[in-house]
Design goal:
With about 60 residues, the chain is an all-alpha fold. It is built from three helices and no strands. The chain has one domain (about 5-50). The two termini are about 25 Å apart.
Length: about 60
């Protein structure tokens, strides 16, 4: 799996995942577990939907 999630995208996903989990906890709803998806994809740096649609927000390294 090639990294296809950039740094800014990762930070946003992790924060959003934590917020969704917290809201689910506060309202005692299982729907809060949806927050695991952006949290995990942000943590590992790979998104399955990005792969399907050939999207990448990761920076491309230049070869010298």
């Amino acid at each position: 799996m090639k990294c296809n999630v950039g740094t800014t995208d990762r930070v946003i996903r992790i924060i959003l995942g934590i917020v969704i989990l917290a809201i689910g906890y506060v309202y005692q709803s299982w729907w809060g577990l949806i927050g695991l998806i952006p949290l995990i994809t942000g943590a590992i740096g790979w998104c399955g939907l990005y792969s399907v649609f050939h999207i990448s927000t990761a920076s491309k390294k230049k070869s010298s």
